[in-house]
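User: Fold this; tokens only.

Assistant: Input:
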Amino acid sequence: MTESEWREFVSAGTRTGKVALTRKDGSPHVTPVWFVLDGDDLLFNTGVESLKGRILRRDPRVALCVDDQEPPYSFVVIQGEAALSEEPGELRRWAAAIGGRYMGADRAEEFGARNGVPGEYLVRVRMTKVISERDLAS
């Protein structure tokens, strides 16, 4: 895919990203996340004391996969390094944007109020590598 194609693919609809992190013992941890793009960054929220939050404080490396579940099947894998923010304005703003994407614009502020609070991180992943494939089964 071209850059504009993979950006459109990951931003379309409500596909979740599956984020992969490395636990302290070296084993993988994978979990779905809601996310949005902001230029060269990918953003999601997580709890400060969640497993994701604790891992990212120790090791900021991230890989995230977005795929479709219907033929002819396509996917995008984004690799990068995360920066964590607890800044209230940014946290609330992006929690609302993420909530709006997945739950609808009419519920954006509700999710901003729920997820943009103390005890949450805004995770800003600076994208360093993107791998994308379209129409694998065609």
